[in-house]
Amino acid sequence: KAGVTQTPRYLIKTRGQQVTLSCSPISGHRSVSWYQQTPGQGLQFLFEYFSETQRNKGNFPGRFSGRQFSNSRSEMNVSTLELGDSALYLCASSPWTSGSPSSYEQYFGPGTRLTVT
Amino acid sequence: DAKTTQPPSMDCAEGRAANLPCNHSTISGNEYVYWYRQIHSQGPQYIIHGLKNNETNEMASLIITEDRKSSTLILPHATLRDTAVYYCIVRALRGGSEKLVFGKGMKLTVNP
Fold it and tell me: How far apart are the C-alpha atoms of B111 and B41, rounded to whole Å?
C-alpha cells in the first residue's frame, strides 16, 4: 500500500498570505489528523477529520482550518500567515475503528515544511 | 490521560539491544501504551502498543511491568538507522476521535 502523501513538501510564504496544504491518506483509512511541529512546542495536534466531519480540534486559532473530501483526502488552510506559523505540518491517517486500540495507530506522511518570511 | 516520563537521551552501540524505558506510574486500567519514533526530518512512525501483556512485532518488543507503572521498548539489534526520538504515549480509548499527545520523547543515538 502507498503511504500517506503530502503536497507540497516545502513552501515559502510571506506574512499575511494564506496557504493550503494537501494530504492523501493510506487507501482505506478514513481518519485524517493534522499536527504542527516546531522546535519550541514540539508536536501539537491541530484537528482530526473522519467521514468529512471534524471530530476533534486542538488549541489553535481560527486561522487554522481544514476539510476532508469524500475520498478521505484532506486539506488544511492557514490564513493571514504569521512568522510563528513556520513549522513542519504533518498529516496522519488511521484505520480508525470505534473501541479498537488500532485507532491510535497513526501513519504519518513526510510533512510539509512551511517557512513564513 | 496518564503522564509519561522518559530520560531525555541515551546511547547504544550498534548491534546491541537498546532498552528504552518509560515511566507511567499514574496509568489507568483502560489505558494503552504506545510507542512512536521520529527519525530526523521525517514524520513519526508507529512502532508498537500494548495494554498489559508483552508484545512483539517485526520492529520491537514491548515489556510492560505487572503493575503497569512502567514499560520498556526493546530494539533487539540496534542499527544506525534506529537513531531517532522515541515517544512513549499513554492513551485511553474514548470511542470517538483518538488524538495523540506527544511529549518531548527520548533521543536514542546508536553509535558505530
Answer: 19
Q: What separation in angstroms does the CA of A94 have from each of A98, A100, B112?
A: 12, 11, 35
Among A105, A107, A112, most B C-beta atoms within 10 A, so best to mutate, is: A105
Give A66-113 pLDDT, tens digit per residue.
999 999 999 999 999 999 999 999 999 998 777 777 777 899 999 999
Set of cell numbers at residue A13: 510564504
Could you tell me if A92 lies within 8 Å of chain B, comparing CB atoms?
A: yes
Q: Is the dihedral of CA B103, A72, A110, A37 positive or negative?
A: negative
**What's CA B37's distance to the chain center, in Å?**
8
Give pLDDT tens digits for B83-112: 999 999 998 877 666 778 888 999 999 999
Which among B46, B51, B96 has CB closest to A55? B96
Enter the DSSP assignment of B25: T
By CA distance, what is A89's nearest residue in B? B43
The C-alpha cell at A110 is 513526510
Q: What is the DSSP letter of B89?
A: E
DSSP assignments along chain A, one per residue: ----EEE-SEEEE-TT--EEEEEEPPTT--EEEEEEEETTTEEEEEEEEETTEEEEE-S--TTEEEEE-TTS-EEEEE-S--GGG-EEEEEEEE---TT-GGGG--EE---EEEEE-
**Cβ contacts of A34 on chain B, cutoff 8 Å:** none
